[in-house]
Amino acid sequence: xxxxxxxxxxxxxxxxxxxxxxxxxxxxxxxxxxxxxxxxxxxxxxxxxxxxxxxxxxxxxxxxxxxxxxxxxxxxxxxxxxxxxxxxxxxxxxxxxxxxxxxxxxxxxxxxxxxxxxxxxxxxxxxxxxxxxxxxxxxxxxxxxxxxxxxxxxxxxxxxx
Amino acid sequence: xxxxxxxxxxxxxxxxxxxxxxxxxxxxxxxxxxxxxxxxxxxxxxxxxxxxxxxxxxxxxxxxxxxxxxxxxxxxxxxxxxxxxxxxxxxxxxxxxxxxxxxxxxxxxxxxxxxxxxxxxxxxxxxxxxxxxxxxxxxxxxxxxxxxxxxxxxxxxxxxxxxxxxxxxxxxxxxxxxxxxxxxxxxxxxxxxxxxxxxxxxxxxxxxxxxxxxxxxxxxxxxxxxxxxxxxxxxxxxxxxxxxxxxxxxxxxxxxxxxxxxxxxxxxxxxxxxxxxxxxxxxxxxxxxxxxxxxxxxxxxxxxxxxxxxxxxxxxxxxxxxxxxxxxxxxxxxxxxxxxxxxxxxxxxxxxxxxxxxxxxxxxxxxxxxxxxxxxxxxxxxxxxxxxxxxxxxxxxxxxxxxxxxxxxxxxxxxxxxxxxxxxxxxxxxxxxxxxxxx
Lengths: 161, 439
Hints:
- The structure holds two protein chains of two kinds.
- By secondary structure, chain A is an alpha+beta fold.
- Chain A has a single domain (7-146), classed as Nuclear Transport Factor 2, Chain: A (Roll), CATH 3.10.450.50.
- Chain A has helices at 7-22, 26-30, 62-73; strands at 33-42, 56-60, 85-95, 102-115, 118-133, 136-146.
- In chain A, strands 2-1-6-5-4-3 form a six-stranded mixed sheet.
- Chain A starts with 6 loop residues before the first helix and ends in a 15-residue tail after the last strand.
- The model of chain A has no long low-confidence stretch (mean pLDDT 96).
- Chain B folds into two domains: 15-52 and 179-434, Naphthalene 1,2-dioxygenase Alpha Subunit, Chain A, domain 1, CATH 3.90.380; 55-159, Rieske Iron-sulfur Protein (3-layer Sandwich), CATH 2.102.10.10.
- Chain B is built from 14 helices and 22 strands.
- Chain B has helices spanning 34-37, 39-50, 143-147, 174-178, 181-189, 211-218, 224-227, 229-237, 278-295, 297-305, 351-364, 372-385, 406-410, 421-434; strands spanning 15-16, 20-23, 28-32, 54-59, 68-74, 77-83, 89-93, 108-110, 113-115, 122-124, 129-131, 155-159, 162-166, 196-198, 203-207, 248-251, 257-261, 307-312, 316-320, 324-333, 336-346, 399-401.
- The longest helix of chain B has 18 residues, at 278-295.
- The two termini of chain B are 32 Å apart.
- The model of chain B is unreliable at 1-8 (pLDDT under 50).
- The A-B interface holds A 41-46, 49, 51-59, 61, 64, 67-68, 70-71, 74, 76-80, 116, 118, 149-158, 161 and B 107-108, 199-208, 227, 229-231, 233-234, 237, 336, 338-339, 342-343, 351, 354-355, 358-359, 362-363, 366-368, 370, 372-374, 376-378, 380, 384.
């Protein structure tokens, strides 16, 4: 079976995801991942390196991702207590060729993170792999690649990129 | 040389300088918060610390092949960290000797020559000026070109793969500067008979805080439980329980210090924990057996069995914890610091162990880890908070308290890593450099 996925379906999925994150509805957000899915953010100097051989900013398997969500919901996640305000602009969405029950998805993001009088911008691209199933789309791999040269001036990825 | 002693080695002496009030009768140690805020202090640090001391530049395996180069900034000075065509690791000022233009504009790469785009002067990666357009316009003596080669920092030295430079022509050798810290670097390097290598992928991030807050935080076991409670909770869910019991902090000479943990977490390849999986259990045992055969039982125990964070004054932190990492501090302004951090690994390890290492350390450390962002929150909150007392003339109000553990120290007991002895050692050395001096 070759699943067909339209750009509108992918955009609906990505825009809903952005809204959940901006509203810090993290349990619902975790529900967008299939078990065994990953979340990764490579470093700015080695964006194409294999995470098994390269240091990453984030390389979560599903268990660590679930732990990240548990942490961010805790009042002891000091870096995000109180939570940053964020607003994510997700655009330039492209849908790759589906195969093997998945579809590659590409998009540009610009995230404003506002806290403590600072407005930090994080710009980059998404290179996701979405699983296409009867229930709709789910993340199999959620990959955010920063275009920044350095995490500067805002030097923490304590929120979800 | 044995560094296993944990007896207090600090001379109990009072100090009353513009920045440090150390009072052994009251058992208090206070730091003037101007040290975090003042432009004047920052300028003084540049002159008296950063332009004098040995500064960590990078690890030799970052420039692995002849011709490899990377840009780097130390003490505000743009540098080129390179391995030349003769396989010699070098550092150059990234500034054309002609008019000062930034010479190398690629952040990294591999090149036999560096050419300045402005007037097309060309330099070999060994530093010689090898090409000037229209050379007849310059004095014909060979001396002109010979004097206009790439400028190097006045001093350069490599200790077991860790490369340092100094912008001062004179001063103690790197070996003398490292002193007792060498022992702890050795414990790291000796993880493998072929030494360490840097894993690709650099954490590069900025903190809105003074560089000394990052030093204090790293030498501060006291903050671990309250600040990293969510990380400790995560570890518990994986079946591992941490403990601070038996942890020590040892103040070393020249402003260095080392935090020693017994129960911080597992250590990839050295000390098993449930997150590593059953398959790793036997591999770790085998690894430690081989280590003992190579370096002896006692040393193998030190290398494998304890976690350490070593601070090398002024700009290097070495983590020998779940995995191995180096963190470099680059002050930009009194309230702003750039950080670069690399993960290191035994050059001999298997791909499976490398993968595990990256996964395990990444869960803790770095801007996207489950712990470091809370440290950054701490530095930034201190930086924002110390403004509150600026100019307050009441005694001890505009001063931060670093007294924890002095009473134990005065009684001759060893300092625990949840005490602030390591931080005091740092501040005393800092004060000596800045010209505070003992009372």
